User: Fold this.
Amino acid sequence: MVSKTHIILAMAIGLLVTTSQTLAQDEQWLQYHSARELGLLGGGMQPQPLELNTEKPPGVELPQFKLETPFFARWSTPMVKSGYLWVALDREHKQGPYDLLYIDSNGNGHLNDETAVAAYRMDQYSTYFGPVKVIFEIEDGPVTYHLNFRSYAYDERNSRLYASSGGWYEGDITVAGAKKHCVLFDYNANGTFDDKSANAGQCDRIRIGEEGARDARFVGNYIEVGRILYRPEIARDGACIKLTRAEDVKFGSVRLPESVTQVSANGENGLFTRKPEKGVASLPLGQYHVYDWIIDRKDDKGIEWRLQGSGPAQTSVFDITEGKEIELAIGEPIVATLDASANEGTHSFRHALKGRDGERIELTRNGAQPQAPKVRIKSADGKYDRTYSFEYG
Assistant:
């Protein structure tokens, strides 16, 4: 007969194991990676522009530069107390592009203890560095991060430097008992992975789905996975994520023209894509921007046409409130413009499509770009009458 003490001990061990597994699922850890040209992986990234000048930063100990007047800049990041790290550009030769880069990689406020990073690629206009490693000292210990730099620096009047994220996190996580692949991108290149914002360019990106998928959502108050709404908690350094099912979320309605087959809206709540039913879609309460919209249609020959509008003006802000339906005037009509200019006997023409709110319009025919439109030019007396085709690009 098993003793009562052994039964209690077994129950305690079982409870401990179950509790440990539950806690382990709360924070799900991801692996860090770094690479050059990260924009190709992230579907496009938002570089941080760095202002360059030749004034030596006060109180900063400097290395022995090869130039008398190197460039200096500050990369902004909330991951260090000062809010920025110093960056310097130098070059091997008196002329040519700046091909050496220094960064305060240990965050001590100085550059004299840093080793110059050589450019890995140069072309006629740009110099590329990266991935360049920096170390953040946070409460839990040191955190590694990488940056990619692109320089256009030639002289004091023509100089630019851009910093882009060179690192990301990814790994398998469990969502509602199912295995999913999660990827986190520091879209705005400030060293953190949890930024949410009403401005699409200032919030980070997240993917949860099949490994290798290319679609990305905005980091926000919510994220939908398998039609279920979750509240994500993302570690500031990107190392882990926790998803909690969002309960008791209130929704409001938005009415769209019935020709609109899909609409995406973004805000601090995240990015939501909706396919309206009879012109109506629902969103969690909050403020949004129209991110893009789609109109799909077939002509009488069965050819599938798609209009996609993206990049509307920032004035296209709307509030979803409880018990109130808001109407959005998006979609058609589309405006076709033709701009003509003349310079020393040469005439130039430019054709463009714009939405009613200034959106960029992309038109496709059976999923491909249709033939460019034509323009007919005829003189008043009819002696000149020719038809030309526009070219894309």
User: Anything to note?
Assistant: The CA atoms of residues 196 and 203 lie 4 Å apart. The two ends are 84 Å apart (CA to CA). The helical segments are 4-26, 39-42.
